[in-house]
Amino acid sequence: MKDNNVDITALADEIESYIQELVPDSVPVKKYGGTLFTLHPDKKEGQFCGVFVQAKHVQISFSKGAELKDTKKLLSGSGKLRRHINYSLLQDVNFDELKPLLKQASKL
User: Rounded to 5 degrees, what are φ and ψ at 30?
Assistant: First the structure.
């Protein structure tokens, strides 16, 4: 039996690697208990998304998620700005569906 914490951490690592590969100019910043990705590390609120490890899932949080065109209806949340996606297993992550959201978010 695998340790769930190891699986969740490995899942977060895969997602973070994918973001870095997809948006190579982004800078990962460890903050708020996760990894924020920004194209403007000198700005306090310059991040476009973040990856946060929870007990049973990994959350990708989009700073301006309410502005994203989410044609696949992947995003959750109803606040004025942020939206998120939770993943529990690597096989649940459809990187082809995630790609347009990350690309859009990095341009906002």
Answer: -75, 115
Per-residue pLDDT of the chain (108 residues; tens, 9 = 90+): 355 666 999 999 999 999 999 999 999 999 999 999 999 988 877 899 999 999 999 999 999 999 999 999 999 999 999 999 999 999 999 999 999 999 999 999
> SS3 string of the chain?
CCCHHHHHHHHHHHHHHHHHHHCCCCEEEEECCEEEEECCCCCCCCEEEEEEECCCCEEEEECCHHHCCCCCCCCECCCCCCEEEEECCHHHCCHHHHHHHHHHHHHC
Domain membership of residue 67 as a residue range: 4-107
- Let me know: does 102 contact 38? Beta carbons within 8 Å: no
Q: Give the CATH number for residue 92.
A: 3.90.1150.200
Q: Tell me how many domains the chain contains.
A: 1
Provide CB contacts within 8 A for 40, sequence distance 6+: 46
